[in-house]
Amino acid sequence: MNAPAPAKALAALPETLFSVPGMRCAGCISKLETGLAHAPGIAAARVNFTAKRVTVSHLPETTLPELVEAIGALGFDAQPLLDPMTVTGDQESRDLLKALAVAGFAAMNIMLLSVSVWSGAEGGTRDLFHWLSGAIAVPTVIYSGRPFFKSAWAALKHGRTNMDVPISIGVTLATALSLFETIMHGAHAYFDGAVMLLFFLLCGRWLDSVMRDRARDGVSALLKNTAPGALVLESGGQSRWVAASELRQGMTMLVAAGERLAADGVVAKGQSRLDASLLTGESAPVPLGPGERIHAGTLNLDGPLEVEITAAGAETAVADIARLMEEAAQSKSRYVRIADRAARWYAPAVHTLALSSFVGWMIAGAGWHHSLLIAVAVLIITCPCALGLAVPAAQIVAAGALMKRGVLVKDGSALERLAEVDRALFDKTGTLTLGRPDPVNLDALDAPGKALALALARVSRHPLSQSLRRALEAEGVTAASVEGAVETPGAGVEALAKGVRVRLGRPESQLEDGRLACALSVGDASPVTILFEDAMRPDVRASLATLSALGIESAIVSGDREEAVRPVAAQLGLAAQTGMLPEDKLAAIAELDAAGHKVLMVGDGLNDGPALAAGHASLAPASASDAGQNAADAIFLGDSLDPVPTAVRVARATQRIVRQNFIMAIGYNVIAVPLAILGMVTPLIAALAMSGSSLIVVANALRLKGSAR
Amino acid sequence: MTGIALLIPIALGLGLLGLAGFFWSLGNGQFDDLDGASLRILLDDDEAGPVS
Prior knowledge:
heterodimer, A: alpha+beta, 24 helices, disordered N terminus, B: mainly alpha, 2 helices, elongated
């Protein structure tokens, strides 16, 4: 199964993890594993398709950019994952899965023994079976019950109560009482009920945790907008690659065209233009020369720059925005999830019910043993088995359906909040528009011109060249053959095609209003200018129409200049506020909040981070900044804006199913609790009621499977 | 009764064996890449895989 690894893989080699979001099929796996194993300096590669990651083991001297280059040569975009947090992390799910496996094993075997008891085993046989059940159940409850005991204890310590308190009391009491019954040769033991309860509840817990993991995998596969490091110029004139966390004030970094800055600094040498849209929302490139300040996260468009670092890591200008984001996120953490809201009245009700049945039977003169038996039956029957499954089952099915449509939801509460929104605020650059320059007048080139343009564009890493290459390749143009291609940074690419000098590069005269453009000249013929524009996402109009059909009113909040926003706003018929700072966006949300609206924030930039954190719910495109992705509740992939209304629609459908599940769970209690109080619930009835209600709830949740279509 | 004395340990033992197997495979990374595993059966093991 493994890619053939050359013999040099024998020693313990350093391993680097890359996220490769572009892999889609079996061919990609083999292409990456086989191709990388043959690349120089790389010993072996292993693909994890689920997480869209590649682990590369390579020689110590192979640098990060070389590895990215090697993956790039196979036709994949790769981003190194350096943060260990994104690597480990599903430990919680794994522990829950182990607890679930143990509970499942125990439940099956105890049920095996219980069925014999129910079918009429008597005397010594029944005692033996009870003892065996107990021997399996007690260690299981201790092992698999830990997640609940821990959470219940934490809640009690703070003087609160949650769903886990009645669960813990119920399971512990039922086990202890059954043990007592077994010792006393009693007829009824509830070992099966206690363990089965744990099994069903762990199912719900595990599903919830898996959902968070999956989204986190997806998100970390997309972390890509801050540079992982930079080439640092050393005193001897050599350059060395340094990771972002190792960059220090006073270092000089080399930033090539098409690279993002890894730290704040002052330009020491070079002339270029910068795309700061991620930071400010400003769409037009900013020209820049020596002595001027630039910030981490901006994209160098034209020429190479030497930048003296003034601030790195947590000290960058980004830190300010991060502080705002943290404050904004606090209001969101106060949101109480629907299951917890239910638990607020459910837990005390269950305790009161069990206690009063105990007291009631004592008063009726039933004796403490019989009364306790009934109280335990009440606790087991009312334990929120179906309730514990009702929410996570529905949410994970919905999240799976959304994932197929390219929406990664971070957690269950995101779906709950998404269902409640009634206003939507959109950022412009990168959200309503694609946030990248696209050629708008390719028709100006004839067929041979296109072939030449592609041949030249392929050579360069300049963002305009890359965009031109993508557009031409999408049209199915085949590159012409050229010889001796040379790139002059800041000027363009030159080559010979059949003896004629061809050039793709900066147009001779600057265009008015600083629009992006490049020119293709063939021999002595007059050059053809290709214009670039930040195009609107496809389906924007249809998506906004769907949103308003869902009763959600949209508006634009942009950090860009009014001249840039006005045409977009006019075209879409939306109200727009322009030139907004991150604080202004926060204020806009606070204002709507105060008016009783629930705001859905859709944005991508660093400047949207605080607003994304403050919105009642928030969505960010996959092209968004790290900060944007971290702050958003869900990420959508692809160019279309259609996932936004889809996400809202699915979230609302999920809430409907959750509510139905709650009603069913409550209905089940209304029937079962009186029976338990009357003392008519035997272990057999408890087992049937518990598994029956859980299965119904799960089956109902499965109806959400097609909800995203 | 002798039948039960034999059968119950066997039943429990088999169950435990399955549980141990599951724990082993979880720790061994068998569940790390479920989507990838379903695709890998399509790959040829020899060098002549679709490298182009």
